[in-house]
Amino acid sequence: MSAAASSAEQLARALSAQRDKDDKSQLGFWIYLMTDCVLFATLFATYAVLRHNTFGGPSGHSLFRPGYVLIETLLLLTSSFTCGLAILTARLQRRKYVLSMLLLTAILGAAFLIMEVTEFRHLVTEGNSWRRSGFLSAFFTLVGTHGLHILTGLLWLSVLLVKISRQGVNAVNLKRLTLFSLFWHFLDLVWIFIFTFVYLFGVSGL
Amino acid sequence: MNQEHSKVVISHHHPVAASLKRYLIGFILSLYLTSLAYILAVRHNLTMYWLGGTVLGLALLQFVIQLICFLHLGTETKPRWKLAVFWLMILVVGILIIGSLWIMAGLNYRMSPSQVNQYLRGQDSL
After folding, report:
1. What's the pTM?
2. With contact defined as beta carbons under 8 Å apart, do A174 and A26 qualify?
3. How many CB atoms lie within 10 A of CB B22?
4. Protein fold of A18-203
5. Which of A94, A167, B67, B98 could be B73's S-S partner, Cβ–Cβ 3.0 to 4.6 Å?
6. Domain ranges, ordered by start, for chain A
7. Complex ipTM above 0.95?
8. Are A71 and A115 in contact (CB under 8 A)?
9. Maximum distance among all alpha carbons in chain B?
10. Which of residues 35-64 of B touch A (CB under 8 A)?
11. Is the pLDDT of residue A50 over 90?
């Protein structure tokens, strides 16, 4: 009887220690995300300064295809949502649902990245690479940095998929998944501003 | 032991139904705001000034909605370190963006032909 009580006490203490550790790692990761925001802010500021310096070349108005970018945006937004669903199903310990939601997230993210790379290739083959003008240098740096983050996220996600399919949704994997979801939602946050300030402003000639 | 462990961890989090509602609201509002901004920019009915302001406002609104619904900002218990770091980030980003634009606007003004001519005239008279 008393042995059971003390073991319950031990369990409670171990859990609260684990929770403290999880909270700390989440805060640490959150601080990383906020500094990453500062990185993106410098690139946004550079783009804001250089976006009219087309050096006689084409401006965003003639280069960007709004419908194409809208599809990219919807893909990324939906993948952010399915990533949230993965967290919810992970809390319910439904491994199959977690895996299918994460797989869907990965497919949508990969589709986004493929569309972006296709757009870049299209621009470069038309002679509008980053060497064309200050505007295009800033554009490729800003959007390319976001794309590299997405690529990193996809690599992280594939590792996570393997881990969860092998080990199931244990406490460690749930923590990993939580950190990943923060990263993935954050990338969608940055994309809102790229979509608005780069593409919508560019298309309407602002 | 392991089974019990995971169960206790789950019960610690907020109820799943409430979280699902949050994600759904965030997703639907984001879809709505994205398409609204897109339609405004493509149809181009507003004047430049209003269009820029509205579209940026919609982006900021979506930013706040996703912060609350997807990143759960503001749900942590005191001490709110995440929120504190977030406000510090906003401050730094604000200084960075407004400062850059201000400096470059000043530079453009001073390098404009009329200003440069005025400067050169001042040099000649010395």
Report:
1. 0.88
2. no
3. 18
4. Four Helix Bundle (Hemerythrin (Met), subunit A) (1.20.120)
5. B67
6. 18-203
7. no
8. yes
9. 90
10. 35, 37-38, 41-42, 44, 48, 51-52, 55-56, 58-59, 62-63
11. yes
Contact assessment for residue A81 and residue B27, using Cβ atoms and an 8 Å cutoff: yes
Q: Out of B44, B66, B97, whose CB is closest to A188?
A: B66
Within 105-124 of B, beta carbons closer than 8 Å to A belong to none
For B5, how many CA atoms within 13 A lie in the half-sphere containing its CB?
17
Mutate to test the interface with A, among B7, B21, B30 (most CBs of A within 10 A): B30
3-class state of residue B75 by DSSP: coil
Cα A139 from Cα A124, distance rounded (Å): 12
The domain segmentation of chain B, as residue ranges, is 1-75, 77-126
Nearest CA in chain A to B99: A45
C-alpha to C-alpha distance for B96 and B92, rounded to whole angstroms: 6
What's the pLDDT tens digit per position in A172-202? 999 999 999 999 999 999 999 999 999 999 9
